[in-house]
Design brief:
The longest helix is centred in the last third of the chain and has 8 residues. The chain has a single domain, classed as RNA polymerase II/Efflux pump adaptor protein, barrel-sandwich hybrid domain (OB fold (Dihydrolipoamide Acetyltransferase, E2P)). It is built from 4 helices and 9 strands, in the order E-E-E-H-E-E-E-E-E-H-H-E-H. With 125 residues, it is α+β, with helices and mostly antiparallel strands. The strands form 2 sheets. Strands 1-2-3-9-8-5 form a 6-stranded antiparallel sheet. A 3-stranded antiparallel sheet has the order 4-6-7.
């Protein structure tokens, strides 16, 4: 199971890649593995400003539907257009083409609350 060292993580199994004041967010390899075959991703919050830990969308797999949570506060400035037609890219490339959203962060101090790769690895065993 991959846990790239250059990313930050949440306890809810999202990963965060920092690009200046923008956070690229997706779900981890562990999360997609637990969910199983992903069949639908619903994110209707583009253009909205949400607080840390608010729900920004849902991800549906064959066996369950799960909420996805904001790892940091900010405005959702972009959705991954590939998810509409090929949500299964989350299964095949969770840390790459399977990204979910880009957030223009409003509070960079919240990054300090995220887990390092080692801390996340310890959480998932």
């Amino acid at each position: 199971m991959k846990v790239p060292a250059d990313l930050k993580y949440t306890k809810e199994h999202e990963w965060v890649k920092i690009e200046g004041d923008v956070a690229v967010v997706g779900i981890t390899d562990f999360a997609q593995g637990e969910l199983g075959d992903i069949v639908f991703v619903e994110i209707e919050t583009e253009g909205e400003t949400l607080a840390k830990e608010e729900t920004f969308g849902t991800i549906e797999a064959v066996k369950t539907v799960s909420d996805m949570f904001m790892p940091v506060s900010g405005e959702i400035i972009e959705l991954n257009p590939a998810l509409a037609d090929t949500p299964e890219v989350v299964n095949s490339d969770a840390f790459g083409t399977g990204w979910m959203i880009k957030i223009k962060m409003s509070n960079l101090a919240e990054l300090n609350d995220l887990l390092s790769a080692d801390e996340y690895q310890a959480q998932i065993g």
